[in-house]
Known about the structure:
alpha+beta, Ubiquitin-like (UB roll), 3 domains, six-stranded mixed sheet, 45% helix, binds adenosine-5'-diphosphate
Amino acid sequence: MPHLRQTNVTAAQWTANGSTIAEYDLTSPSSQIFGSNVFSVDVQRQRLPKAVFKELQAALAKGGALDRPLADSVALAMKEWALEKGASHYTHWFQPLTGSTAEKHDSFFSPTGSGGAIAEFSGKELIQAEPDASSFPNGGIRSTFEARGYTAWDPTSPAFILENPNGAYLCIPTAFVSFTGEALDAKIPLLRSMDAVSTAAVHALKLFGHDDVKRVFSSVGPEQEYFLIDEQYYFERPDLVTTGRTLFGRKPPKGQELDDHYFGSIPERVLAYMMEVEHELAKLGVPIKTRHNEVAPGQFEIAPIYENSNIGVDHQHLCMQVLKKTARNYGLVCLLHEKPFAGVNGSGKHNNWSIGTDQGDNLLSPGKVPSENLRFLFFCSAVLKGIKKHQELLRATVASAGQDHRLGANEAPPAIISIFLGADLEAAFKAVASGSKADEGENGFLGLGTPVLPPLALDGGDRNRTSPFAFTGNKFEFRAPGSGQSIGLVNTVINTIMAETIEILATELEAAINSGTPLDEAVTTIVRNVWEGDGEIVFSGDGYSEEWPIEAAKRGLANNKTTPDALPALVKDSTIELFETYNVLSKRELEARYEVFVEQYITLLNIEAEMAALMAKTAILPAALKHLALIKESGVTSLEAPILELIEQLNAAITKLDEKNAIHPAGDPIDHAVYMRDEVYAAYMEVREAADALEGVVADDLWPLPRYSEILFVK
Ligand code: ADP
Ligand code: MG
């Protein structure tokens, strides 16, 4: 049997690798595992002395720093709890600019000097640590003579325990700061942005008569798409191992056209895997709600119930971590790359975003009475205006090498940022803008004097899957983020944009009210102005169509197609002003991020180019040559010329790729990024073209790589 067929038979077989979760009785209290590995408020209440617990909650509500005695008491309780759970080590768990999380473990146990060891962990260790952080990207913030950074406890995100077959460890969510106080991570700016949007929204709500609201929370519910493939194929593909995506691969005869995967039942191995993932995440307090197949063969989705931005982002990281880790127990590998397979849908992460009050009111939920609708339209207007103004910034938050294969490729929203409101909400805006009495339908419109607002019976069913920023009933869904991305920056940016626009509109509203204009009239004026000034950001048509980019250009909307086009928006004047005004990121912190992201793009394209050249030279070319020898041996000379031509084509392309990739243009890194895209990536694509063509002719048992038709379909 040819080598590859044997491999497929092996790959198709599976047993859960030692870690099956036994069936358990959901009605028994011992089965209630949700949050069992979290140092939650409930655990704190049980374990902390009453006074300490109260003091901690008060400090958290105020958002101030914790003093040492308080931190010491909390640390003591946390340590005891962790030891009981079998944790021998603790780590500050943080989110450097690499886009993933980092940990450095320290043992709880310190030698006593007399040959023994005692468990030591005080407020000092809880609050602050100094990881050897010189190797984390910092975009020039930390010069080498002051290479230290420190991590600082974020008490608003609860500590948790991660388990391993050989032990457990306590993870303390922390922020990562330079010694000069600059944010080196994704958490600090997010926390700052949550404050900013809260302050602005509380101000606005006062004008609507809500004096009782003290705090407004932004929330996120991220839907995560991912691929699962058998680990056998993964390890047979050096490109997957090294770059997370297949650099070669011919489109399979059957892809996702039949939709048989999407609408089929979840394969048994995958379902077993999903159940364990959900079990693990439940212990960590991550509230997973849905699971299903996605469009591409081998593609799936998982989504939690939404949480406040900070915890939601932390939990998103845990979700990715658990997805990857658990896959190996089932002989699978979970791919979180945005585009692991060319010609097959890539994976994204829908960022569902909303803001709500400490009284439990969702500000993006249409109300039942006219006054609530006024408030709702006010906040929606802020979304329109803010996203219009900072569309390029929002685009920049989802820019990465992986995303360049996905955005605008008829499977994900285009690189043009626009908003979909749905027919009802759009009609409401139009009715307000024109001052006309909109059609009095069966449900009747809620009269508000003049003009008249329609009843906003908005259901999430009114969907436009091609829009990057869509209103879906009581939230906006940003569909552009990539599957492997941290959504920290995304939410930081949305929150800060909203803080600015809410503040602008609230100031207008306040002035109108102060000059005696009734509230409803003042709000309708604002809604009308926003619709007239910024309504062009709203687009309900097909975002995948060829006409849309042309229409968008006419409307003056940006279309930053690739990462090098998109990233500069991170440091343009309006961005710097926005972030500095709301103390979310300083100019230096923004520049640092820009530098790091440009650098990451260049590095990744360079790695891909090297890997592609290596595989082409050492695996694909030799296979083609063997095939040529086979033809020569057979004596069927008519077969020779076509393969020879492809071999020559491949060889020439490899040489060109090597030449292009050897050049590292000096000067502005963004020019280097453009060079990588226009020259190096283009040269790689020529190699790929020849290689993929060869895959279609070289003898099956000579072809050195598992094919898409195997990787995606053998389950
Ligand atoms: P769909 O696939 O139809 O968009 P899902 O149910 O898969 O819907 O995902 C919707 C996501 O939006 C879930 O994570 C959900 O918790 C989240 N979500 C719901 N309401 C809000 C809200 N007010 N703010 C933020 N996220 C929300
Ligand atoms: Mg969705």
